[in-house]
Design a protein that fits this description.
The structure is a single chain. This protein has about 90 residues and is mainly α. It is built from 3 helices and no strands.
Length: about 90
């Protein structure tokens, strides 16, 4: 496989992932819109995020990553999850 074929394959993969993300976004928004208590669901999502964030440093340590990698991973997850939490009408924790 030459460079052009690899780039084409990479482009297809990125496009496929983007389409999956868009479809999931629509599905989640539909679920939020029909949920009987979206704020409660947002609060649960916030709790799940907090639990996951607390485990990231341990996972990183076990895999031999530097502390700054775990912090960057946590910061990125917090940023991305914040989008979903806000859709539930909940302000993400700092």
């Amino acid at each position: 496989m030459d460079v052009e074929e690899r780039l084409g394959s990479l482009d297809e993969t990125v496009h496929d992932l983007a389409m999956n993300a868009m479809a999931m976004d629509l599905a989640v928004q539909a679920l939020i819109g029909t949920h009987p208590d979206p704020k409660l669901a947002g609060d649960v999502l916030q709790r799940l995020l907090s639990e996951r964030l607390s485990r990231i440093p341990d996972i990183g340590f076990d895999r031999g990553y530097e502390a700054r990698t775990a912090k960057a991973t946590g910061d990125e997850l917090r940023r991305r999850a914040g989008y979903w939490i806000r859709l539930f009408g909940v302000e993400p924790a700092a």
